[in-house]
Amino acid sequence: MGEGGRGLGAYLPFAVFAAIMAWRYFRMEKARPLRLPLLWIAPLLVTAAVCLALYGLPPSGFGWLALAAGFALGAGLGIQRSRLMRLHVEGAGNEARVMIRQSPLALLFILAIFAARRLFLPEMAVQGPHPAASGLLVMDATLGLMLGMVVLSRVVLWQRARAMVAAHMFDA
């Protein structure tokens, strides 16, 4: 590793993120089934990971405030991202199923969130009276952001899909 963590390993998260975004871009136009009974799994896993992180390093008073603020911001971002997803119903009657396609705008939205996080959070982490304490606040806010985004995104997708299936079956 180079000086200050600037070696090749410092760019690994960017390479992984770029590979995932490229893969999602090329699969964007292909609709895939949205499995409503399985939408609870990702929020459960993220909640468990956040709880484990908070158990290992409990936040202070301001840490809880940062966590709540991050959750509120993440909830808003998750709701917006879910509204950008393209949903449609294929089939009729009991054979109806909801299909989901990633929209280009939703993909750009994720890229903007990643870029904003990379641009603003490192700057915030080194400011303040003690860099380690402000770094913990940033970590708490990031945990809240992730939790809010995943949970509310799945809730909104579930609500939209359920309403679409009910209206589709009613129209048939």
Task: Provide keyphrases for this structure.
172 residues; mainly alpha; three-stranded antiparallel sheet; 3 strands; transmembrane; DUF1453 domain-containing protein; DUF1453; transmembrane helix; membrane
How would you describe this structure to a colleague?
The protein has 172 residues and is mainly alpha-helical. It folds into two domains: 1-30; 33-171, no CATH class. 69% of the residues lie in helices and 7% in strands. It has five helices and three strands. Strands 1-3-2 form a three-stranded antiparallel beta sheet, covered by helices on one side. Helix 2 (41-56) runs antiparallel to helix 5 and helix 3 (61-84) runs parallel beside helix 5. The longest helix has 41 residues, at 131-171. It is globular, with a radius of gyration of 19 Å. The model has no long low-confidence stretch (mean pLDDT 80). InterPro entries: DUF1453. The chain crosses the membrane at residues 6-26, 38-55, 61-79, 100-120, 132-152. Keywords: Membrane, Transmembrane, Transmembrane helix. This is DUF1453 domain-containing protein.
Nutshell version of this structure?
It comes from Novosphingobium soli. The protein contains five helices and three strands.
